[in-house]
Amino acid sequence: YTSLCGTSMASPTVCGLGALLLQDFRQQYPGAPDFRNSTLKVLLAHTAEDLGNPGPDYQFGYGSVRVVPAVDLLRAGYFLEAELDHGQVYSVVVIVQPGDDQLKVTIAWDDPPGTPNVNPVLVNDLDVIVYDAANQPYYAWTLNPASPASPAVRTEPDRVNNIEQVVIDNPAPGAYRVEVRGHNVVEGPQVFSLAATPELIDCSSQGLAS
After folding, report:
1. At what angle do helices 37-46 and 7-28 cross, to 10 degrees?
2. How many other C-beta atoms can be found within 10 angstroms of the C-beta atom of residue 201?
3. pTM score
């Protein structure tokens, strides 16, 4: 026996974990269409064990995947798939109870193919922003490509990636409004996936009942 570490070993491991998630999804939601690629991505990234600098980084991404928390998230139903066009906003609510030590929201989407050798490479740009009861905004993690070793910050919208994550540590109890915005949807509508904890409430167009 020997221990090896690298993408050649990680790829089949994550593939197998994805197969387990799909199997459990089919058991939990019989008759529903299989979840999208972007949903698998948010389930794994949302529940990954953070490594390296806090938040995403260029060495570990969003961390090391953990299938048990991912299955728990799947069974709790704290995820969804929806779509947005340019300028549209999709809103949900996340409930934080006393004792909850973190609020986390992750979105991802399968971006249309871009033009080779053109920068920026992102075709459709969505943003996720969380608002507390005082309407204070909380932004997703962003990295500085010019300084790869610098920790991620949470000071502005992400204009680079097709996966974004907002984390609020030690949040005050209450209801938080999550907005996914179609900032620049060139080829729409854009389908996206979202996961949120500790408790996701997907409100209808009739409003919120509390």
Report:
1. 110
2. 15
3. 0.92
**How far apart, in Å, are the Cα atoms of 59 and each of 3, 50, 142?**
19, 11, 14
pLDDT in tens, 1-18: 888 878 888 899 999 999
The 8 Å CB, 24+ separation contacts for 29-34 are: none
CB 140 within 8 A of CB 160: no
**53-75 per-position pLDDT tens digit:** 999 999 999 999 999 999 999 99
Q: Are 116 and 143 in contact (CB under 8 A)?
A: no
Give the chain as a 3 state SS string.
CCCCCCHHHHHHHHHHHHHHHHHHHHHHCCCCCCCCHHHHHHHHHHCCECCCCCCCECCCECCECCHHHHHHHHHHCCEEEEEECCCCEEEEEEEECCCCCEEEEEEECCCCCCCCCCCCCCCCEEEEEEECCCCCEECCCECCCCCCCCCCECCCCCCCCCEEEEEEECCCCEEEEEEEEEEECCCCCEEEEEEEECCEECCECCECCC
Using one digit for the tens of pLDDT, what is the confidence trace for 89-126?
Answer: 999 999 999 999 999 999 999 999 988 888 889 999 99
Computed over every residue of the chain, the mean pLDDT equals: 93
